[in-house]
Specification:
With about 200 residues, the chain is an alpha+beta fold. Helices cover about 25% and strands about 30% of the residues. The chain has four helices and twelve strands; from the N terminus they run E-E-E-H-H-E-E-E-E-E-H-E-E-E-E-H. The strands form four sheets. It has a four-stranded antiparallel β-sheet. Helix 1 packs across helix 2 and helix 2 crosses helix 3. The chain is globular.
Length: about 200
Amino acid sequence: SGLAQDGVSTVDVANSAKHLPLHTDNPYREPVPGYQFLFCLEASEEGGESITADGIAVAEHLRRHFPEAFNVLSQVEVAFEYKDDAVQLRRWAPHLELSKDKVVTAINWSGRLDFAPAVSSAELDRYFAARKVMYDSVSGDGAQRFERRFKLGPGDLLVFDNRRCLHGRTAFPASSQRHLKGCYVDRDSISSTYFTLRRKTQHC
């Protein structure tokens, strides 16, 4: 589910107390989860800060300053895959999805779940060079211009667009009782509600 829950899990780093780098959730699903709601039930006294970054801002930074990387990341499809004993999910997509007018519409970024494309060695070199540019922009010092850090407290609710917003978390003590609950809501459900309510209010 992409949530940090009680204690340490050996299955998913998101369910551990470890640092969770910026990423988008479940890029291997079809459709990819839209809006994510994270509700804080209990916060850790130390660490466990939430991290967010505008993925479209990152993409536009690449378009302006690293056009070759932008072109590669928006054209080359990679396999995003999750599997365990009961399920295997796979979806092919570029890291940066564009509309027909070249507008960035979605970000697919999850370093633990993507697999290199089956292309020539020269094309593979171009892909990994572009991927490193993206990685450097959302990691370490490079991420500081894009990321926001804050601490969720009990009763706080964080809502964001998983197709646009990268999110992560700083590490916290494994003995902590940090506890978040969350869910996903499809983008079309939100937009449908918005347009329906707007139509009704216009006729009032």
